[in-house]
Amino acid sequence: MAIKNEGSTGGGCFIEKESGISSKEKEVSVESGKIRIESDSIGDKEIPAEAYFGINTFRALENFSVSSFRVHPELIRAIAAIKKAAAITNFQLGLLAKEKAKAITRACDEIMAGRLQKEFKIDAYQGGAGTSTNMMVNEVVANRALEIMGEEKGSYEIIHPNDDVNKGQSTNDVYPTALRIAVLKLLDPLTESFASLQQALQEKEADFAGIIKLGRTQLQDAVPITLGQEFAAYAEAIGRDRWRLYKIEERLKKTNLGGTAIGTGLNTPQAYIFKISQNLRQVTGLSLAHAENMIDITQNMDIFVEVSGLLKAAAVNLSKIASDLRLLSSGPRGGIAEIKLPAVQAGSSIMPGKVNPVICELINQISIEVISADQAITLAARDGQLELNAFSPLIAHKLLNSLEIMRRGVDIFIAKCIKGVEANPERCKELLDNSLARITALVPYLGYDKCSKLACKIIETGKDLQEVVITEGLLSRKELDEIFNKETMTRPGIIKISDP
Asked: Cβ of 70: how many Cβ atoms within 10 Å?
């Protein structure tokens, strides 16, 4: 690969303004005065000599610089794992020299460990079904491997991004497999976070078991419930989400690696297909399996729609819980105020002492993001055509981002909100006593119509429910105490009392 020196006055002209290369990189290239020429079927490009990326990445930077989002690091690490497994497999089959294989696997190890991350700078939004991402990793791996071997970057006659790093592969089997690996890597900590959230809610269920309060339906007074029962319902919903996400992992472990361009395995030895599955299991630590129908895995993205749908369901539950906590903590003087949320920051630039439920609001917004991302993932998967889905980069970006922000959001929700929720028993009792909720408990003994008249009378007069019932001789105080007992009002069954 030709290396060319440029004078300091002209060294910055190797790239157009909107290429995606930073001004700092331009300055380094100008100062070093070195560039290298790389070629493809379209033509030549001048690349900074010190760059690990090559012409394919360069063109992607020129073509797709539309956002501040970059390809997710977990996807980069997953592709590097595939490159490592491929290098090992090709060496085992006698298709790749030992020195090359060693340099490639070492470069891949570094990338999997998080090094060289700044080199992976192309936009998350890109055409080409992920080809630019795959070639970006091929080029970085190749140039780092060359460096490991003591060679200059761009010396592709020694290690070539396509012929060596991408040997036996196509973007169309690498990208779907890598996305499965990345999703699995992010799913595991997410399910652990949901388990922790479920436990935190169950702890609050136990803490609040003895606090009876007013239940509400359609934001109107309903019947009594314990605060513990409310938190038990939250824990149950989160438990379902945890289980659903755990179970989906098995369906993500089928890969099309070795299927190459469209899943038929063109240009790939049969032995390679099975060996690379074994090697990839060792490299990733995941129980991945070779799919019987690689064509299906290559063209269909429905598994990612399924994962996204489960995330959407979890987002719905998270947002419902967060919204409930916001309502129950509203006030502190002018609202419900049956619970108190931890104060984590001042809530207003103008109103002293105001504290807002910001962690709950964070969860609400994360839920909106995940739900809207699900729609994008659904449409992108739907719009794939024939043997390949060109929109897999959008699916990858939205899905991996959803997994990441949901896991981080849940961890914050636990630490900064749920664990610190406090009950306000006095307020719970006050609102229950001042409501008509307990009248419903009298229906089995007095009948619906009589209880309706009783409710109207109490509303009109403002008198206490128990006193009216006793004064009118409907029930005795002892009977009312039994009916209005916490366990009686919040559990199934009807107690036996004498006829009034």
From this structure: 15
